Amino acid sequence: MLELYEGALDVPAILKRWYEEESESNYGAFIPFVGTVREEGGIDGLSFDIYEPILTSWFEAWQKKAKESDALLKMAHSKGDVPVHQSSYIAAVFSPKRRVALEMIEAFVEDFKASAPIWKYDLVDGKRIYAKERSTAIKGSGILA
Amino acid sequence: MLELYEGALDVPAILKRWYEEESESNYGAFIPFVGTVREEGGIDGLSFDIYEPILTSWFEAWQKKAKESDALLKMAHSKGDVPVHQSSYIAAVFSPKRRVALEMIEAFVEDFKASAPIWKYDLVDGKRIYAKERSTAIKGSGILA
Amino acid sequence: MVRVEFLGPISKEPKELDIQNLAELSEKLKEDESLKEWLECSAVAVNDKLVSSKEYPLKDGDKVSLLPPVCGG
Amino acid sequence: MVRVEFLGPISKEPKELDIQNLAELSEKLKEDESLKEWLECSAVAVNDKLVSSKEYPLKDGDKVSLLPPVCGG
Fold this sequence. Notes:
The complex is a heterotetramer, with 2 copies of chain A (145 residues) and 2 copies of chain C (73 residues). By secondary structure, chain A is an alpha+beta fold.
């Protein structure tokens, strides 16, 4: 349920597959969040590094939490370069209940932003520039300082 | 941007089209909410009546509000019968900003549930039974009583 | 004349009534016992705009719609 | 020996160090001036689990990872 791809995501194909995978699961609500690379600051795109072991355990902890509410999470993310106007991230929740789904997609996406071990770089003139000022220190950072 | 269909929605096709329509619009976040008919209480499906003039003006008021935050709303809904495990509703927000998108999809879907002039019926043994106990009186109801 | 429409699950044919405001409409509709439960829980639109006051004036050609409790999605 | 890895934008080769806990690791890494800014803002994982105490004990074969500020999506 955690899918990593080289380069941009094929959003229509992923959403179609996820929707059809759960078509008989009797979920009443399906909320995907799709993140697309914005053209701003003269960038050609973004590039991503992912540390998979910790991303996987972070995702599995969320999946367990979702299951306690009878919900299901799916997530796709790009590795490497993604040009502007293409998408690098899809998170989705399926739930029997609307309220659970609305609250979970928000909490999941916000925790993803704060905790998922993914590093973002601006692509400018063929160079990869760490997006430091848009990045968030993981909770508990600085213990070695 | 408000689309009404006879019967169930073709969710993958609608999501694909909406995503592609806005692929050059420089939105960073796209959040669709998909509502699917759950199999419960022995129903064969749901059926919907829509009063289009007021639904349209309700939607247009929301679209205006979305525009003030540089966001865009799209919505599709079924008229008539929709079998279990098929979908009757998609609402979607596009926004440059994640926070705006997350807050707007929630507020939009909740106001939709409370205000949109759509009536729901359970389909049981070929009969249409008004889902009264799951329905919500529109704000300001009862002035003629 | 004012046209009165009953939306969704209120299974009533439209009526044409000679009335000046919603208060008069309320009096007329209360005569129909089968409408009692609907009047308590229905919203009212005049010419497709929801209104919140019984004093709302009506004029010849207006359309009044009764909207019972909703449940889209 | 403990293997220390620097993730994402920290461009450092992994190190093999003979240390007993994170406090010792902190002392060693502080010797490298170019790591100073990263130590202040990085989280620490031992064997791919985030840890929150400098007293965390290390044993032969452990892997320590430094995770600088993140920005997925």
